[in-house]
Amino acid sequence: MKKAMYAVLALLAHLCVGEYVRLTWNITYVQVNRDGHVDRLAIGVNNKLPIAPVYITQGDTLFLTVHNMLDVPTAIHAHGLVQTNMPYMDGSSMITQCGIPPNSSFTYEIRSNSQSGTFFLHSHHMGQLADGLRTPFIIREKYPLGYDEDVLVALEDWYATDSRDKLVELLAPDTNTPLSPTFPFGLINGFNGNDTKAVKFERGKKYRFRVLSMSTTEYWKFTIPGHKLEVVEADGVMCEPQLVDGLDLAPAQRYSVVVTARDSDEFNFVYNCTLYADFVPRIKGLNPRVYTGLIEYKQGAPIKHVEVEDQIEWADDVSMHALDNEAVFGVDRQIELAMRGFLTTDKRRLRRLGTLPYAEPHVPSIFTAMSMGALAMDSRVYGPQTQAYVIGFNQSVELVIKNTQGQTHSQHQHGGTFQIIERGPVDHSELEPPPDPRFSLDDVPKIPVRTFTGVPMRRDTIDVPPFSYVKVRLRMESGIWLHHCHLSPAHDVAGLSVTFVVAPDVMQKTLNIPRVFYEQCEMQGIKTEGNAAGNWGFDMTGLPPVPVEMPAPKAQGAQGAAQGAPAKALPKVPK
Question: Are 120 and 133 in contact (CB under 8 A)?
Fold first, then answer.
């Protein structure tokens, strides 16, 4: 019954013409104390932070006018939205545009078309996301889906350090001195997680909680002890309801859950938001940080503390089913990506997904695709470090994304959603040896192979736990689409990105990029034709030298650990 209802509503959404919604952002620096501990320079809108959430309705078009009042370029990405026939509006700096120059303006045209759900708007230029330039972007369904109220729970991590300073630290040559771990504070709906307002419940009503992680690095868990969560959406894709105890969100993931209020208002309850990371030490009060808020049935009622069971059932995307019943794609091409460290000969600690760490081209890739004629079908013209894969029109691609490391990664796809096909272990021979010889690959946890059944779930951001792979399939529209780790700036800027160039021959025939995009580049002295270096053919003169990797150390097993230092178990794989 629900499937039939959804199909009818989706058809009606396609037939309806939406409204034009106009919004103006003056992007400025602001001095803030968001966590109650540290004053720091951040980036806000109209001299304010947090930035107000943006709401539109399915079928609407958002015209977002950005006045860049910073001293550096900026670009705004509608995370999770597919920019149908308008890839130049994707907002990826040096991929689909040069960025909005300082003291200039630009208007993004963001068409929701038939898309609805929970998204967010954020900067896609260097590490500005981590400096506060992010806010929820909610596209309400044109026809309500059977709940009484909407509750927004926007989760962020907040660091004391400016992203530019952090990047200098992260990308500096290694001095053999390990970086000190940093422990961010958690923000809920833009403010210190301990200062949240009560969520008021009425007996028997249904509440749609939109829980989204706008975090840059750390993960979040969300539970309401004493209540079940019925998952109905992940990353803007409606799903068959999945009843769970909690959500475990990687950076940039989003869920909608429907929570049915209890029949009695005798007690109030609490909800828990836990900020945590597996790549820094566990220290009480620092990692994890636990924030609680009130579920208020009746003012002044006592709080009932429900003991949380040891075995919590978390939302699980590989076992979900997309409600629109989209059949699994065939495979026209398979691409394997592997997350690996890349220590250069000059001792910079970079990362790679393909053969080399990603680095921005000198010419935005969309302009290379539009100006290189038949050569645009050859991946070499996009430059060695753009890590470009040229994909044919309407091709279905299977990605095998391997995490060979002991740290989890959150992979985001521009221009489409993944069908989640399979999860499983990376072969032991492919694992990256830990830098600490006291750790042993012999202690890597055993991970079962799990495959979808029936209709695969789709989402645009997928968590890849340590030492595991995820197999996904997708079909993208013609355009230039980035695939990258959403841990920012530590991973994406350090090289964990690749570029999918989809049907550049079709782009040349069908796209008409507005003149303003060329003007943005001209104002910054950036070329808008030629290969990645701004030359013709395969001449890459002018690009920085390709980094050279130091030979990798040999893997350490339990017997090969450093003498006198017993082997330790590697971190457990999170669910």
Answer: no
Distances (CA, A) of 158 to 79, 161, 164: 19, 9, 15
The tokens describing 402, both together, are: 């391997």
Q: Which two tokens stand for residue 93?
A: 């700096």
pLDDT digits (tens, 9 = 90+) for 188-219: 999 998 888 999 999 999 999 999 999 999 99
Residue 386 predicted with pLDDT over 60: yes
Q: Which amino acid is at 211?
A: V
Q: Rounded distance, CA 67 to CA 160, Å?
A: 26
73 close to 524: Cβ distance less than 8 angstroms: yes
pLDDT for position 489? 72
Residues near 100 by beta carbon (within 8 Å), at least 6 away in sequence: 66, 68, 73, 74, 75, 106, 520
DSSP per-residue codes, 417-446: -EEEEEEEEPPGGGPPPPSSTTB-GGGPPP
Q: Using CA atoms, how far apart are residues 486 and 252, in angstroms rounded to an integer?
A: 7
User: 557 and 441 in contact (C-beta within 8 Å)?
Assistant: yes
- The whole-number pLDDT of residue 245 equals 96
Identity (one letter) of the amino acid at 328?
V
Distance CA 430, CA 559 (A): 19
User: What are the structure tokens assigned to 267, written together?
Assistant: 């007690």
Pair 180, 144: CB distance under 8 Å: no
Residue 203's contacts (CB-CB under 8 Å, 6 or more residues apart) are: 261, 262, 263, 264, 265, 297
> Do residues 89 and 479 make contact, with C-beta atoms less than 8 angstroms apart?
no
Global pTM value = 0.91
- Whole-angstrom distance, CA of residue 492 vs CA of residue 495: 5
Cα–Cα distance measured from residue 15 to residue 36, given in angstroms and rounded to the nearest whole number: 48
Burial class (CB in 10 A: 0-12, 13-18, 19+), 365: buried
31-45, 70-84, 541-555, 559-573, range with the lowest pLDDT: 559-573
| Rounded CA separation 165/473 (Å) | 37
Has residue 553 got a pLDDT over 80? no
CA pair distance 350, 407, nearest whole angstrom: 15
**Alpha-carbon distance 575 to 248, whole Å?**
8
pLDDT digits 0-9 by tens, 448-499: 999 999 999 999 999 999 999 999 999 999 999 999 999 877 777 788 999 9
Q: Above 80 in pLDDT, residue 160?
A: yes
